[in-house]
Amino acid sequence: MWVHFENVSVKKPNEQYNKDPVEFIFNSTSSIQQLENTSIQVEYISLANLPSLKSDTIVNALVKVDSIEETKLVKDGKFLLREMTVFDKDGNSTTLTLWETNAERIPKIGELIELLGVKVKEMGTHKVLSATKNTEVSFNFKGVNAIAKKLRAFSGDVKSVFEPPVEANLEELLNFEGPSSKVFAVKATLASTATKTVSYLGCGKCNRKKLARGAICSYCGQDHGATELYRLGLCFEDESEDGFWITAFEGIASKLLSVPAETFTQWPQEMRTEKLNSLLYLQYVATVKMFEQDGEWQSRLLKLETLQA
Predict the structure, then answer these.
(1) Which residues of the chain have pLDDT under 70?
(2) Are 153 and 136 spatial neighbours (Cβ–Cβ below 8 Å)?
(3) Buried b (16+ CB within 10 A) or exposed e, 118-127
(4) What gap in Å lies between CA 211 and CA 230, rounded to an integer?
(5) How far is CA 135 from CA 21, 115, 157, 179, in A?
(6) Nearest CA among 4, 80, 85, 94 for reference residue 47
(7) 168-185 pLDDT, tens per residue?
């Protein structure tokens, strides 16, 4: 018999009293339902709903990696953690913290990660996600959830909510009006870049913009230091359109320019200009997500690859 649990916590039991591998903890909001078949359907939370959830709520999430921090040792060097910025299918973002063996893995920018049983935590005035020892983390997620793989009894198919990109031209992106978010792959030539403002001062923990070094981050509610991060404007053209601007942030821009923003901004202006000019008039494949925010359609650069000559 297959059953479906909702709002149930999972913990490792006290072996003195319980020899089972896990223990389920029910509360007044928990529910249990027998399933008609053995297909597994996973419901993923929208990150837009995080602020309304209580701290320590357990949820499932399907996210893509936007930026990655280096690993850190905390609590007197006893535990290893890695923090990263992730976003969901609607472009909502938050911070994800992974621990120990999961923190040792370095995911790629844009990699899809499934999190089953991840915990909602407070970070300053915001809600974030933090994996626990009971969280099932599936890197480079391909559509079969981790629980199903462990049970080896999966008879259905979980379709990823991140659909493969649709080929399009720049005019189609400029005229896109939904009705729902969509990811496109566009072949275009880089015609120009921003030259004056290519970076911003970001929080050393969450990458959000800071007013000054030493200032309290409005997102974290603390001062975690500050660093220069890319916010590089790129203008593409193709046969349909000659002026599509989009922003490349730290993950994509540092790969494109081969150096982090902290280094690039220290270069002399002539050297920076020469490096930016070396990117021009080459063909790229840009993976772009179009999504609605505050009643307007926005574009987000998810990936940028140079076409081989």
Answers:
(1) 1-7, 10-12, 14-22, 28-41, 143-163, 308-309
(2) no
(3) bbbbebeebb
(4) 16
(5) 14, 7, 21, 34
(6) 94
(7) 999 999 999 878 778 899
Q: Measure the CA–CA gap between 286 and 303, rounded to whole angstroms.
A: 6
Q: Who contacts 114 (Cβ-Cβ below 8 Å, separation ≥6)?
A: 42, 60, 61, 62, 136, 137, 138, 141, 145, 146
The alpha carbon of residue 168 and the mean position of all alpha carbons in its chain are separated, in whole angstroms, by: 24
Q: Are 147 and 82 in contact (CB under 8 A)?
A: no
How many other CB atoms are there within 10 angstroms of residue 253's CB atom?
Answer: 24
Could you identify the residue written with the tokens 């901004």?
A: 265
DSSP the chain: --EEEES-EEE---TTT--SS-EEE--TT-EEEE-SSS---PPPPPGGGGGGSPTT-EEEEEEEEEEEPPPEEETTTTEEEEEEEEE-TTS-EEEEEEEHHHHH--PPTT-EEEEEEEEEEEETTEEEEE--TT-EEETT--SS-HHHHHHT---S----SSPPPEEE-HHHHHT---SS-EEEEEEEEEEEE--S--EEEEETTT--B-SSTTPPPTTTSS---EEEEEEEEEEEE-SS-S-EEEEEEHHHHHHHHSS-HHHHTTS-HHHHHHHHHTTTT-EEEEEEEEEEETTEEEEEEEEEEEPP-
pTM score of the predicted model: 0.53
